[in-house]
Design goal:
367 residues, seven-stranded mixed sheet
Amino acid sequence: MSKNSKTPKAETIRGNLLHWWDTGRRDLPWRRTKDPYAVWVSEIMLQQTRIDTVIPYYHRFLNRLPTVEALAKAKIDTVLKLWEGLGYYSRARNLHKAARLIVRQYAGRFPRDVKELQKLPGIGRYTAGAVASIAFGRPAPLVDGNVIRVLSRIYCIREDPTRSAVTKRIWQLAEELVCHKRPGDLNQSMMELGALICKPLSPDCRRCPVRTSCLARKQNLQNDLPRLPKAKKLPHYTIAVGIVFKNEKVLIDKRKPEGLLGGLWEFPGGKKKKTETLKEAVAREVREEVGIEVAVGRRLMIVRHTYSHFKIVLHAYLCEYQSGAAVPLGCDAVKWVSVRQLPRYAFPAANQRILNQLLNNTPPQSP
């Protein structure tokens, strides 16, 4: 924090934020309810996902699973199918696990206490603060990327906010601000401010409700803060996948529940080794994953996809079954299904493009 500037008054910041929230916030579906279940679902969906993307998923999810009891009773395959395309699937798996715990241990009633909420799978300090403050009116702080940016600028915090001491300081500031009779609105106002006005690049300071309190603006540092570390270069992997046909059916396998994309269905495949060709990689991966021998044919398509921590180029090859019985060696389950049955299963985004190509029955010529 700047040593030469007077610390902004929390009362002034609160008042300006809440007045702006009352008049300038967006009308979003999860803001029309205090139901802790709906608030929780929205907050989990909104993690690392754009609002425009979330809205249709939110409506579809709540229409199908309107209560925590309904979510607890649902099969995980149903939950993953509803989540399909939203990404970060551990969120869906934890949502399902947490719902079952809420029904079993809390008789279907959400804990109101932040520490109790944090005992549930997938609920960290941020989500606990969101549910506690928005649904139950508890003065619980929350800090996400938007709040970090807003508070770093208001209080002119020049240090790297990812450092533990600085992170702790930002949480302390958020806690001081949220001590008010409208904690949920205050928390949401800071997130909304970061999303609409106090943006990472070129913040619209003229429209900012707390511009008179902002120390960064007074020192013309609003474009320099927060000072985040440089993003690391993402590693890149080449993936070889087999679209294996047998008697007009195609083979799919289910990823093990733990880890990336756990519980989703996919076409068998994996990382190509440096010493092998793509076709050799397909045959080996299919053998290791499901225990069958295949004849690898032409390439169906190439899919490029970026995950949060790495990038892939996926090469999908049409294959014919040769011998062996398909068994789950490197996966959780295997199935032979018709192409028309594929949409019943939840697939990762990269596999979705292959699925769509098969359904359209217009495979491109091999490159």
